[in-house]
Write a structure and sequence with these properties.
The chain has 9 helices and 13 strands. By secondary structure, it is of the alpha/beta class. It has 2 domains: 172 residues, Rossmann fold; 97 residues. Strands 1, 2, 3, 4, 5, 6, 7, 8, 9, 10, 11, 12 and 13 form a 13-stranded mixed β-sheet that branches. The protein is globular.
């Protein structure tokens, strides 16, 4: 698809009557048939799902990008770790070009080799992170190398080859399921009806969440310099100032809304999810500061000047969600 159209898809996917959505609908029907056949093959045992020796928690979404899945993986992994469990993380390594898989991600790993999300996960948690397009391989290597008690999978909801003990579905409380159509006519990776009744549905956003049993809010923490990460400033430092806001994530408007809630004036520059930034992408006809997402920042240290920053956030789940995770974690044996 043309890049301009790709950028507009999140808005198109909210409207069943949009002409582009209507045009793509026949492809969605074909995609639906493929997904139905695939699930049937797993259910019939013609394609196999494999268990591993420790519990697996999959954190995913049924829509494309921008729900807050990766920040929740970070919160969940650290929460389980501080409850005394040995935790490891697996991820697909989307966008990575490593010549071999799986990869044990090191703190100095390059995003172009293992993907931006994997580097961010390692950097934020310091926990073991293994990436592979085949998540079963990643899980088995994680167990072999680190003897973990529990595995948290960043995405992988549709990766049925790996059995899971708990599914957590992250849903954007504002956009929900868009126009309720499958890709490419809508944002759905699979039908909402295919979500397991045992899965936890957690809704993300910063308003009108009390109606849901499980929800999480986004909490801006601080603003950190991209080149010199020891340089940190208060989140209100840019209040009233104009900046160049850059986002290459699934739903850039969520990031822009968060910056505007801090009373920052924005020149908005959005790029597709997992965008491979070039130096020209970050050259602007002004001398204003750049503020971008943390996921984008891991790829851009060599491309920006010293007045370039990223916003650190975390997620704050409600007590109902924490209690549900507590119940699950109590059933996991701790290794010595």
């Amino acid at each position: 698809m043309p890049p301009k159209l790709v950028k507009k898809l999140p808005q198109i996917w909210q409207d069943k009557t949009h002409p582009v959505s209507k045009l793509l609908y026949p492809l969605s029907l074909l995609y639906a048939v493929v997904m139905i056949i695939r699930r049937y093959l797993y259910k019939a045992g013609l394609l196999r799902s494999h268990s591993v020796s420790v519990p697996v928690i999959v954190v995913g979404n049924v829509t494309v990008g921008g729900t807050g899945k990766t920040p929740l993986v970070i919160w969940l992994s650290e929460y389980l770790y501080f409850k005394g469990l040995k935790v490891g993380i697996i991820s697909r390594g989307y966008g990575g070009s490593s010549p071999h898989w799986p990869v044990d991600v090191s703190p100095l790993e390059k995003p172009e080799m293992v993907g931006d999300e994997a580097v961010m996960l390692k950097k934020k948690t310091s926990l073991p992170v293994i990436v592979s397009p085949i998540r079963l391989d990643a899980a088995e290597l994680l167990i072999d190398l680190y003897a973990v008690d529990v595995i948290v999978s960043d995405d992988g909801l549709q990766h049925l080859a790996l059995k899971r003990d708990l599914e957590i579905i992250v849903i954007d409380a504002q956009r929900m399921f868009g126009n309720n159509r499958l890709l490419p006519s809508g944002p759905l990776r699979e039908s909402v009806n295919s979500i397991s009744t045992d899965a936890i549905r957690i809704y993300s956003g910063n308003r009108e969440l009390d109606q849901f049993e499980y929800w999480m809010k986004f909490n801006p923490i601080r603003i950190r310099n991209i080149i010199n990460e020891n340089l940190v400033i208060d989140i209100h430092e840019f209040e009233g100032n104009e900046v160049n806001a850059v986002a290459g994530i699934g739903y850039p408007e969520k990031f822009f809304d968060l910056l505007e809630s801090l009373k920052i004036k924005l020149n908005k520059f959005s790029f597709p999810d997992h965008h491979v930034f070039q130096a020209d992408d970050l050259k602007f006809d002004n001398n204003l500061a750049i503020i971008m997402t943390e996921k984008d920042a891991v790829k851009c240290a060599s491309l920006v000047n010293d007045n370039s920053w990223y916003l650190e956030i975390n997620v704050v789940p409600n007590d109902n969600f924490k209690n549900r995770i507590d119940l699950f974690s109590e059933s996991i044996p701790r290794t010595i």
